[in-house]
Amino acid sequence: MPLVFKPVDISTEEKECRKDYFDRHTPYVICERQAKRNEKLKVKVTLGDQYVHPDDYDHYISTIQLWNRETLLAQVHFMPGAMGNQPGHVEVDFYVVPKMTMNLTAMAVCTKHGLWESETVDVAVVD
């Protein structure tokens, strides 16, 4: 079983290198907290808030997944150089059609630092 890194409040970290490490790997789910049943909902997943992630041949974000509880909704795979070999905030937009209330979580894989999980975002679904 791989080690899964959970979100950390970087404001509590004293060392800048630890803030950088946690922030640039942590996925964030960005979407409306309420959606209409059977209508497309845009869900953005971005990595990092303050610090950018490398895009090197041996160190890059290879996968981003979007989960609703235990169900994988969508995923995307990146190759090295997809960000132009420049550090940046990796992000992807997913579009899902909700049928019921969702609990969305993103997972991201760094080729050097493993599997990272976002905080869960609850989305209410209304008619």
Automatic annotation (TrEMBL):
GO molecular function: iron ion binding; oxidoreductase activity
Domain Desulfoferrodoxin ferrous iron-binding: 23-118
Taxonomic source organism: Acetobacteroides hydrogenigenes
SUPFAM superfamilies recorded: Superoxide reductase-like
Keyword Electron transport part of the UniProt annotation: yes
Protein name: Superoxide reductase
Keywords noted in UniProt: Electron transport, Iron, Metal-binding, Transport
Family recorded in the similarity comment: Belongs to the desulfoferrodoxin family.
